[in-house]
Structures are given as structure tokens and as C-alpha cells.
Design a protein that fits this description.
The protein starts with 7 loop residues before the first strand and ends in a 42-residue tail after the last strand. It has a five-stranded parallel beta sheet with strand order 3-2-4-1-5, with helices on both faces. The chain contains seven helices and ten strands. Strand 8 and strand 9 form a beta hairpin. The protein is globular, with a radius of gyration of 22 Å. The protein is α/β, with parallel strands linked by helices and about 270 residues long. Bound molecules: S-adenosylmethionine (SAM). The site of S-adenosylmethionine has 22 residues, from helix 4 and strand 10.
């Protein structure tokens, strides 16, 4: 490759669907790209508006890893910029590492540009905070075990024993299994569970339910794929009330680097909560 110009591959998070939810950097890189290769199963083609004249747009859902790599490496070796556009954020179930490893071996530079994951888009459309003070301070992003196995120690029942917020990808078709796993972890039938199909798309469907009813409610709504399932006590809409759980962040008695305490003990210095 001596002397030949080498392009670059950008893995770009397209966000969940709403074309306004891609980053400014992601949009610019798509506009500047010579080749745009996008996951047509879940990326909204609206995010590809404004590509430059002559740019090639290819869909990747029907391609194998080898075909994708051949296309990207070929373009980069011609000195082209490649926008490899993934749904949500590439770091979550994005299958990015297997692509990056081969690009690296082929001497092709690459970079990841983050995006809004569907887990956070789903929380947004539900009006939910996943880390509610004194309820849970932890979110687990995972999937139910289906044809793709999960490592030992990451079975859903074991994870659910933390009683934190769970964001489940690729699991809508396995909702019966999810229900059983959470019950086996000791979750009661009234624990809030929600499913958001195609969050932020025009045909988005939101199902707010409970552990006891979620499988039936999702079936009634016809949701079997393309949905994020959020579960856990933080989703309880009853928490959203005046005088409900509050963080220390704006607590007037709690001092931190950016604010003195008005009264009370608080803590001085250090990180804000
Ligand atoms: C291969 S994973 C990709 C996840 C993606 N990287 C992300 O951060 O959202 C595909 C799964 O993500 C979820 N997903 C992606 N986009 C979605 C959306 N707009 N609404 C609901 N779920 C979505 C679904 O669980 C789907 O089965």
C-alpha cells in the first residue's frame, strides 16, 4: 500500500430512528462520505439525506461480514471515506469489533462516532429516569438468551437479582422467557415493565405494563421484534411526584465542587453526586 492514499472508515451511531437524533459529527461525516453502508433493518434512511453527489449508498442487512469488509476495505484503499452507519450507538450490540479487527489487520484506519442508543430513546419516550435516587443507581444493558448464548454469570435471572433497571435488547420475541427469568429472580407481578417498539419512529408503539402482564400486552400490541424492553422499580410512574425521591445534585444542604451548602452537613469538594 506504499504511497497509495488510504481512506478511513467511520462507524457512526445513527440514533434510534428520529433523524434529528444523530450527532452533528455523524451527520457531517455522512455528508462527506464517498461510500455509505447502512444497516437498513433499523437505520432510518432519512439520516442519509444530504449525501454528496456521486456518493454510493449500500444496504448491509442482506450482506455477510466478508462482503461488508470487502466493500469497506476496497473503498478505503481507493482513498475513500466510508460511513458505516449503525442503529443507536455502535457500542451496544453493534457488531463493530469484528469489523474493526479486520480493518486494522488490513491497515485501514477507523473511528467510532457514538449515537443515542435505543435504550435511552425508549427511556425518553417513556419519560423515565433509569437511575432514581434511593430506588436504583444501576442500569444493566443486556439481552435474553436465545439463539445467541450469553456468558455464564450473565443469565437474566442472576442479573435481575440486583433489582436495578434492566434494558433488554433483541429480546421482544423472547418475552415469555424474560417474564420467567425476572419472576425467578423474585420480582413481583406489579414491577413495572415497558416495551417500546421503534422508539422515535413515526410508527413507534409504547406498551406500559407490569411483569405479570407484559407478555400478553406485547402480544396484544403485535410487538415481536424491534423493541427495547425496560424493566425495574425506577419505571414506576408513582415516583414522579412532587416531594418524591431526589438526588443530592441540587440539594441545598449538599456541598460539592460547584456549590456551597446552604445549611446542614453535606460534603465539601470531590465529585458532584
Ligand atoms: C442489533 S441491536 C442494535 C442496538 C443499537 N446499537 C442501539 O444502541 O440501540 C438491535 C436491537 O436494538 C433495539 N432497537 C434498535 N433500535 C430500536 C428502536 N428505534 N426502538 C426500539 N428498539 C430498538 C431492539 O431491541 C433491536 O432488537
Amino acid at each position: 500500500m506504499s504511497g497509495a492514499p488510504v481512506g478511513k472508515v467511520y462507524f457512526i451511531g445513527a440514533g434510534p430512528g428520529d433523524p434529528e437524533l444523530i450527532t452533528v459529527k455523524g451527520r457531517r461525516l455522512i455528508e462527506e462520505a464517498d461510500l455509505i453502508l447502512y444497516t437498513d433493518s433499523l437505520v432510518n434512511p432519512e439520516v442519509l439525506r444530504g449525501v454528496k453527489p456521486g456518493a454510493r449508498i449500500e444496504k448491509s442487512a442482506g450482506m455477510t461480514l466478508e462482503e461488508i469488509l470487502e466493500m469497506m476495505i476496497g473503498a478505503a484503499r481507493r482513498g475513500e471515506r466510508v460511513a458505516r452507519v449503525h442503529t443507536g450507538d455502535p457500542a451496544v450490540f453493534g457488531a463493530v469489533m469484528e469489523q474493526a479487527a479486520e480493518l486494522e489487520a488490513a491497515g485501514v484506519p477507523w473511528e467510532i462516532v457514538p449515537g443515542v442508543s435505543s435504550a435511552f430513546a425508549a427511556a425518553a419516550v417513556l419519560g423515565a429516569e433509569l437511575t432514581v435516587p434511593e430506588v436504583t443507581q444501576t442500569v444493566i444493558l443486556t439481552r435474553a438468551e436465545g439463539r445467541t448464548p450469553v456468558p455464564d454469570g450473565e443469565k437474566l435471572t442472576a442479573l435481575a437479582r440486583h433489582r436495578c433497571s434492566l434494558a433488554l435488547f433483541l429480546s421482544a420475541g423472547l418475552i415469555d422467557r424474560v417474564q420467567e427469568a425476572l419472576k425467578a429472580a423474585g420480582w413481583g407481578p406489579e414491577v413495572p415493565v415497558a416495551a417500546v417498539y421503534k422508539a422515535t419512529w413515526p410508527d413507534e408503539v409504547i406498551v406500559r405494563s407490569t411483569l405479570g402482564r407484559i407478555a400478553e400486552d406485547m402480544r396484544d400490541a403485535g410487538i415481536r421484534s424491534h423493541a427495547v424492553i425496560l424493566a425495574g422499580p425506577a419505571l414506576d410512574p408513582g415516583l414522579r411526584r412532587p416531594g418524591g425521591p431526589r438526588s443530592k445534585l441540587y440539594d441545598k444542604t449538599f456541598a460539592h465542587r460547584y456549590r456551597r451548602a446552604v445549611k446542614g452537613p453535606g460534603t465539601a469538594g470531590g465529585e458532584e453526586p
